Amino acid sequence: MAKEVFYSGCAAAAYGAKDARVEVISSYPIRPYTGIMMELSKLVANGELDAEFVLGEGEHAQVSIAYGASSAGARAYTGSSGVGVVYAMECYSPAAGGRLPCQMAIADRALDPPGDFGSEHTDVMSARDQGWIMGWAESPQEVYDNTIMFYKIGEDRRVLLPQFCCQDGYFVSHIPGKMQLEDQKAVDEFLPPFNSPHPLNPEKPINHGPQIYADQGSAIDVQRAMAFEGLPAVIEEVVADYNKQFGRSYSPFVDEYMMDDAEIAFFLQGGHARTARFAVNNLRKQGVKAGVARLRFVRPWPTDAVAESLSKVKAVGTIETSTSYGGATRGGNLVHELMASLYNVPNKPLVTSFMAGLGGEIVTLDMFYDMAKVLSGAVKNQKVNHSYWVNFEPEVPFRPE
Amino acid sequence: MSKYSIPKHLEVPIGACLPSPVKEQPGMITGNWRTERPVIDHEACTTCLNCFIYCPDGCWHLDEKTEQMVWNADYCKGCMICVNECPANCLSTVNELEFPDGVIRLEKPF
């Protein structure tokens, strides 16, 4: 029977992994994701989950263990935060190139310097070009659901790719929310055991990760590109199935809030979307036609869905939560791909980016109101800057509490 | 159907997972990477097979006729993991220069 609980994002991820019946877990502590492993180790110790729980000597080893387990045909689970995510960087491309659909839970944390525990998406956004599926949840419920859905997507024979299942550190990972755990039998039915096309097997010896000739390099890369080409259709299928089976209403790629008649829109991913929706409610009361478009997947980037959603508005601002120093807009990462998605659309909106939510900063309602002012001004003047660093520019000034 | 077509001669199985050749490949000799090698004292060896299990390159095996461990000089890279793992302390590390057939890297670097 489905069960209603009050869980943090960390517990939600752990129970998602448990209900997905992961077979090998590799762990190494770093906050805030470490709560996931604490929960999972308890489940394994109590006998509620039959899995190998392996301690890595670091994140590089953690992902290597998941790589090995996935090669052997097991459903492998690992995770990290912040500097741990980038320490494992070498292992991401081999897992994707080897087409090993292990999952890595991410609870975002800022990178150093100096030591910073706060939430920021730069950690795993730095790995967005390594061939992994990547998407953000905004609530514990979505973390749980994504954990199960991502395995189903990644293990599909048309896909076979590893997945970053991301949530904001603290804002999602450590704030409990009411959520529903699904019936194990129903989850089993939705997500059958992983059936690897190339498991390690002494009866039929194979090589994983062999040396290749230089001119085969592109041929392997185009294989990965092909998997990504077909990925949006698989995601739509899996999300629709999940919605149907468990009574959810996820949009596969872009979660829209009051976008139908919106003139300005906030475009963002993760937990800050909840504040954005509150801000939009208040802005609407003042007659500002604002909306929120929340991105659920960064990889594959849903070009068509993003273009369709945001060509409805006159101005859109990304709330970046990650950095891309010296990038085309001198802002974050989302804006580059948002602009690229909209470039060939006839009625494209004005686009800007707001640098906010970095290093664990809370993006407040006041900040959203200032950003809305910039966007409304953009519509009026038909002009906008590429980026605004919130708190540090006159249009979006610092506002003491 | 995909819009890409890969020429036959560049085709690679998914994930580049290939059938293993199972036997030794003379084109991939790695023994000349060594600077030192493990030497076994058969008297002390208990054939516990730790070296066989731990060797990352499969360079130890048990000869069932002689009941002795056999070392593969062509592929051992000299990592000495076996020496570290041997519970009977029957393996020792010896420099390649000590052997007439030792790997002499200055003369033959590759």
What does this structure look like?
- The complex is a heterodimer of chains A (401) and B (110).
- Chain A is 39% helix and 19% strand.
- Chain A has helices at residues 9-19, 34-45, 59-71, 82-87, 89-97, 122-125, 140-155, 184-190, 217-246, 272-285, 303-310, 334-342, 365-381, and strands at residues 3-7, 24-27, 52-55, 76-80, 103-108, 133-137, 163-168, 177-181, 206-207, 254-257, 264-268, 290-295, 297-299, 315-319, 350-355, 387-389, 392-393, 396-397.
- Chain A has a 7-stranded mixed beta sheet, with helices on both faces. A 6-stranded mixed beta sheet of chain A has the order 10-12-11-14-15-16, with helices on both faces.
- In chain A, helix 1 (9-19) crosses helix 2 (34-45) and helix 3 (59-71) runs parallel beside helix 5.
- Chain A is globular, with a radius of gyration of 21 Å.
- Chain B is mainly beta and 110 residues long.
- Chain B has a domain at 28-98: 2-Layer Sandwich (Alpha-Beta Plaits), CATH 3.30.70.
- The chains are: A alpha/beta (401), B mainly beta (110).
- Chains A and B meet through strand 9 and helix 9 of A and strand 1 of B.
